[in-house]
């Protein structure tokens, strides 16, 4: 009896199929990327530059410890209260000397708190064991405090929020950036930033008890 030959499988198109599958998975696969905070760093200072003198009352200390506990001015605080606490510090206007007085501040004018927004510094320190998620949440709350105060002053001076002004500025056509309107908007943004400069100091992560 003659042996029946097995049918051959045509593998000529297998390479094409594998290539198509590879493209499919490359297109459909999503890669998780950690979210971050856009921040412009100041230019480096010469090594022999002495630190400027800072009064202790002009420093608002925020600490995130290894257990992700939030300590503000050495006291426990819920993160939902952090923005309002930062606003109260930045907007305090406790300076009595004409050089330090803040005419646009609406805070409590507590002499034991910050003199004016230009001298007020928020110091953020994170423990090395603190989670990145907690770090982002705390930083977002502090940045929101500056944004809230800038919006208020922009609304008072120009009847437009600061966020709206910066959005218009970033979307301005490149061919019209020499126009008087663009230059005026640029100057307004600069003025509002000067009223509430983002003096947010982030120290190197530490191992804290």
From TrEMBL:
GO molecular function: transmembrane transporter activity
Location within or outside the cell: Cell membrane
Coiled coil stretches, renumbered: none
Top-level taxonomic group: Bacteria
Annotated InterPro entries: ExbD
Keywords, comma-separated and alphabetical: Cell membrane, Membrane, Protein transport, Transmembrane, Transmembrane helix, Transport
Protein name according to UniProt: Biopolymer transporter ExbD
Pfam families: ExbD
Family classification: Belongs to the ExbD/TolR family.
Keyword match Ribosomal protein: no
């Amino acid at each position: 009896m003659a042996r029946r030959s097995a049918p051959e499988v045509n593998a000529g198109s297998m390479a094409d199929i594998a290539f198509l599958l590879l493209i499919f998975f490359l297109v459909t696969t999503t890669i998780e990327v950690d979210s971050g905070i856009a921040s412009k760093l100041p230019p480096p200072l010469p090594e022999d530059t002495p630190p400027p003198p800072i009064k202790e009352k002009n420093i608002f200390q925020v600490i995130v410890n290894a257990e992700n506990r939030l300590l503000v001015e050495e006291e426990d605080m819920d993160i939902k209260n952090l923005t309002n606490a930062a606003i109260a510090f930045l907007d305090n206007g406790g300076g009595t000397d004409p050089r330090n007085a803040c005419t646009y501040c609406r805070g409590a004018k507590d002499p034991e708190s910050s003199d004016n927004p230009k001298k007020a510094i928020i110091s953020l320190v994170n423990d090395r064991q603190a989670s990145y998620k907690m770090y982002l949440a705390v930083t977002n709350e502090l940045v929101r405090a500056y944004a809230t105060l800038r919006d208020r002053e922009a609304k008072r001076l120009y009847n437009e929020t600061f966020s709206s002004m910066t959005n218009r500025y970033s979307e301005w056509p490149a061919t019209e950036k020499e126009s008087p309107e663009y230059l005026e908007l640029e100057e307004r943004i600069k003025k509002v930033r000067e009223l509430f400069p983002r003096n947010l100091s982030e120290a190197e992560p530490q191992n804290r008890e």
